[in-house]
Amino acid sequence: MKKILIAGASGMVGGHLLEEALASDRVAKVISLVRKAGDKRHPKLQERLIEDFSDYSNSAEIFKDVDAAYFCIGVYTGKVPDDQFKVITVDYAVAFAQALQENSPKAKFCLLSGQGADRTEKSRMSFAKYKGMAENQISELGLIFFSFRPAYIYPSVARKEPNLMYTISRWLYPLIKLLGKNASIPSADLAKAMFQVGLDGTDKSILENRDILKVLKA
User: Fold this and answer.
1) Which SUPFAM superfamilies does the UniProt entry name for this protein (predicted)?
2) pLDDT digits (tens, 9 = 90+) for 158-209
3) pLDDT digits (tens, 9 = 90+) for 105-155
4) Could you give the CA distance from residue 73 to residue 12 in angstroms, rounded to a whole number?
5) What's phi and psi for 31, nearest 5 deg?
6) CA triplet 15, 16, 21: central angle to 5 degrees?
7) pLDDT tens-digit map of 84-111
8) Are 74 and 9 contacting, i.e. CB atoms less than 8 angstroms apart?
9) What is the dihedral sign for C-alpha 142, 127, 58, 28?
């Protein structure tokens, strides 16, 4: 029976991931790192309040004996200043991975990255540059590391879209699907693939959209 750790369970993908973990008979305990307590109750679920997602120096016990860990914290480009976007995208993810490596070095770590992540870190697009930067720094830690790079993530559950671009993308989803396996993925399917890889691993450390879809068919 597995012990699972999730950061970002209040988000679209992280929420589906939490449901997958709680429903699985392979999982005994799920620890969800949150800023404020939620209203979800489940015998497997333990919420831990975190004030600073860049510092786990006083929370090492959270990361002990973890089998699979998932980092799904993120923010939409343009919602915050560039320096804050970097902190959330890079610093939070790396701090989480470092704490995991120090306390459960054999755990599998799954990062919700994104299509276009630039490992050269030269992109002029903040999203691509900082996602690539996070992947690079985490790769150096020696963890069993899987980075998921989905394309457009279609909300499996209706939501208020964060901006006009996402509203239009949702309307156009039937057409986007026709563009091929590297164009889109439903949020629930992405979560299922991440959950599966966290438990069982896969032969690729970087999973592009088409690779994520293949996991679901395996």
Assistant:
1) NAD(P)-binding Rossmann-fold domains
2) 556 555 555 555 555 555 565 556 667 999 999 999 999 999 999 999 999 9
3) 999 999 999 999 999 999 999 999 999 999 999 999 999 999 999 988 877
4) 10
5) -105, 125
6) 100
7) 999 999 999 999 999 999 999 999 999 9
8) no
9) negative
Digit-coded pLDDT (tens) for 15-49: 999 999 999 999 999 999 998 887 888 999 999 99
Q: Which two tokens stand for residue 21?
A: 């973990």
Residues 6+ apart with CB under 8 A from 210: 180, 181, 182
User: Domain coordinates of the chain in residue numbers?
Assistant: 2-152+186-217
CATH code for the structural domain at 2-152+186-217: 3.40.50.720
At 162, give phi and psi (nearest 5°): -70, -25
Number of H helices, E strands in the chain: 8, 9
CA dist., res. 112 & res. 114, Å (int): 7
Could you tell me if 183 and 176 are in contact, meaning their C-beta atoms sit under 8 angstroms apart?
yes
Q: What b/e string do you get for 46-58 counting C-beta neighbours within 10 Å, with b at 16 or more?
A: ebeebeebeebee
Rounded to whole angstroms, the Cα distance separating 44 from 109 reads: 20
Any bridge partners for residue 27, and if so which? 2
Burial-class residue 206 by CB neighbours within 10 Å (0-12, 13-18, 19+). middle
Give the number of other Cβ atoms within 10 Å of residue 83's Cβ: 8
E-only strand ranges, the chain: 2-7, 27-34, 45-49, 68-71, 108-112, 144-149, 152-154, 184-186, 206-208
